Amino acid sequence: MSPRDSHTAEITPKRDPALSPIDPALSLTHTLREAARHGERAVLLCSFQKEESVLLDELLRLNEEMTPTAPGKTVRITTIDTGVLFPETLQTWRQFEERFGVKIEVQDASSHGKPWSGPEHCCSNAKVAALESSLAGAEGWITGIRREQGPTRAKTELIERDEGRGLWKYNPLAHWTDKDLWRRINERDLPYNPLHDQGYESIGCAPCTQPGSGREGRWAGTDKTECGIHVVEPVR
Q1: What is the mean pLDDT of residues 12-32?
Q2: E strand or H helix at 133, and its extent?
């Protein structure tokens, strides 16, 4: 049974307000609506995982609602291409553009010498540089970070101030679980990365990613847990 099927096979009981006072669907919509107020000075960083399936769908619905006559003022959608993305990720990229009718901007973080090969020759610095380029002039940054993804993300807030970059960071899925994501993907028949059906819960570059729950498949066997783009640098 695929993750999509297993996560939607049974109806999830109603949430206990005392344990989870934030409604995931409402928090998604409200947080994206706040981010969208920045217009083209907001950036959605897309990695073509299940989180972006949900984010793109909801964002474009809001765009139609908020800016029906000003398409040039909508949130920019960008991705970082390290040159070593999985073929399935490239396939999902094409599906996203076809399904959602968007052209995704590309920031190049490929290696100009030998291809990135993993921790011993990692894309981290180039990826962070590409992020900084994509956020140049931006006021807001939309991410797919979720608290459930791991200890380094467990305290993520829906809206945070990134003082190092001088912008607002929007995390509309902070309170979403895997089951919430797959329910939405199933309900709206959204395209998603087929690697999720092969045991990859988190998907990055091919040399550094293995099947695994949460982020366990990322840089497996090492102490590394983040590529660097979500690491907050101290303000100098």
Answers
A1: 72
A2: helix 124-134
| Contact by Cβ (8 Å): 57, 83 | no
Predicted pLDDT of residue 12: 36
DSSP class of residue 135 equals T
**Residues with a known catalytic role:** 227
DSSP result, 8-52: HSSPPPPP-TTT--S-HHHHHHHHHHHHHTTGGGEEEE---SHHH
Q: Which of 41-45, 58-62, 221-225 has the lowest mean pLDDT?
A: 221-225
C-beta of residue 158 within 8 angstroms of C-beta of residue 151: no
77: which 2 tokens? 């959608």
Interstrand relation of 42-45 and 105-108 (parallel, antiparallel or unpaired):
unpaired
Exposure string of 10-49, with b = 16+ CB inside 10 Å and e = fewer, is eeeeeeeeeeeeeebeebbbebbbbbbebbeebbbbbbbb
pTM above 0.85, yes or no: no
**Mean per-residue pLDDT for 49-72?**
82
Q: What are residue 218's DSSP bridge partners?
A: 209
Tokens linked to 144: 């797919």
Q: Which residues pair with 42 in a beta bridge?
A: 140
By CB atoms closer than 10 A (0-12, 13-18, 19+), residue 149 is buried
> In this structure, what DSSP letter does residue 64 have?
H
Residue 205: DSSP 8-state: B
User: Which residue shows structure tokens 């928090």?
Assistant: 27
Asked if 29 and 62 touch (Cβ cutoff 8 Å), the reply is yes
**Per-residue pLDDT tens for 193-232?**
999 999 998 898 988 888 776 655 555 555 555 444 554 5
DSSP 3-state of 56 = helix
